[in-house]
């Protein structure tokens, strides 16, 4: 399908399947008129999109990009229906497999769940080594394993039928940036054979937080994984087994292709489970995201839930086209007392009607402009050159350039294999 449904659209049903109606790509999205954009300033750079339509990125100069949310209250940009082009699994030792072996099946918990999320934290918990920075390695292994699927024969000088490759989580951080007030980020970017690769770099503040994490914080992080164990079965004919080990090395990941305005994206993200009904729509529409949150008892808690939690849940699921989030609401002792389902298509309507605390159009327009900014800046097609983009709350996005540095992240095995197959 050409167009992903606008999150403000009135219909709640899933997207239609009219793949062939290319002329409707911009249906529902009025053409961008810069005469209507009161935030446009003449000093901003103007470019021409593939459709011949001019657009402007909010780069105050070649050095910075503003994150002020009012600048991105524009027409919702084109976002094509995400298509799953593959998947992969990571086993209990974090080994890559180009298959679905780690895919799990959602189980309805019933009306009165009582899940003890603390169970197993002390004696049945294998935690992934957070000191090992995997960068884009697993996505790159998938690309190498599926070269026939992703090689573009129609686009000269491009190794992939995508001009941006990254993790879904990196894009999620970009979407929420205009509303983030506490945590900054750094992204290393390299261009290779015409494709831009984006990999996160841990900030010093994030490293300190990780190394100084309290036991309580570590246990609460475990609770999310434990909730998945209560809700997921390893096989379609089985029931969940909460008596087993929680091993956070294990993962099932979808690989998705889509387009945001003129940016052709290939990204991967972890998927918690799928619905049991094999007659349900195919992936990613059959996937379910699982979350936990403290039970809401006060108006302040409800406001914070809508303002922060729902923003991140929406961004994380909207990007790959996952239609629903199932949330377990817990008490302060880690016992889930209620489970509620949130439809992604309705979340933006909910926050618009009740709190108006964030806007999907701001999120998507900032991400679009950031990618445009990156493509303006990243000029040298060389995997040993890294453009490091950094941002701190209440500041503009800035960048520095590094050659043959510690920030290089495209592995030699990947570079050599792409060179070999493209010669």
What does this structure look like?
- This protein is α+β, with helices and mostly antiparallel strands and 423 residues long.
- The protein has nine helices and 21 strands.
- It is 25% helix and 25% strand.
Class by alpha and beta content:
alpha+beta
Strand content: 25-35%
- Overall pLDDT level: 86
Strand tally is 21
How many helices? The count is 9
Q: Biggest sheet, strands in spatial order?
A: 3-21-20-10-11-9-15-14-4-5
Order of helices and strands, N to C?
Answer: EEEEEEEEHHEHEEHHEEEEEEHEEHHEEH
Q: What is the terminal-to-terminal distance?
A: 33 Å
Q: Regions with pLDDT < 50 over 5+ consecutive residues?
A: 5-57, 152-159
Largest sheet: 10 strands, mixed
Q: Which outline best applies?
A: globular
Helix content range = 25-40%
Radius of gyration: 21 Å
Provide tags for this entry.
9 helices; ten-stranded mixed beta sheet; five-stranded mixed beta sheet; 21 strands; globular; 25% strand; alpha+beta; 423 residues
Summarize the structure.
This protein has nine helices and 21 strands. The chain is of the alpha+beta class and 423 residues long. Helix 6 (299-318) links the parallel strand 17 (287-294) and strand 18.
